[in-house]
């Protein structure tokens, strides 16, 4: 991050390929494609706290997953609010829920792969860094920390999947979800190209939203169908 020049806000960041208005809703498709996050976020949050539907073996993991689904729910409101009138003042409400969700998800992954205490520490630390990153973006007009923060899970999770022994079955869902996440980012970068390739039916940014929805779907299925494998040394030490 420090080796990269400062990346300030630019008016071009708020110019999306598809800015059509339907039924009086500005940037309609970019707005309404956020609402599946609301459904999945609320559903996952309720199932997480119910304690019966998801295979979660500790209270620390419940905190991590609950915050992830809370962040996913907030994405629906924050991103929709931003896309109604994209500008520098509203973009913070688009980025903050996403960073909270990613922080909580990465911490939950660490709890499963490394240890509960380390993961719980990361849960609070990473969410604090997310808040600092958004504050720095707002105060110093610099996107580097936020961009780096969103890139880290896409690299670290696949690497750690092979480095650490899984606590649960169905670990392939982590890799599938990461692949979907990276695909969504490519769609966002190719916003205009996708828009032209689909004969101006849907833009890359709207497709990014829809593709990103598959991410919590895969993780929710993982939480439902997985089972505990064998206790890991890190978990035994944490309990001791």
UniProtKB/TrEMBL annotation:
Superkingdom, taxonomy of origin: Eukaryota
Keywords for this protein: Membrane, Transmembrane, Transmembrane helix
TM region(s), chain numbering: 37-56, 62-84, 117-136, 143-164, 207-225
Name the UniProt record assigns to this protein: Alkaline ceramidase
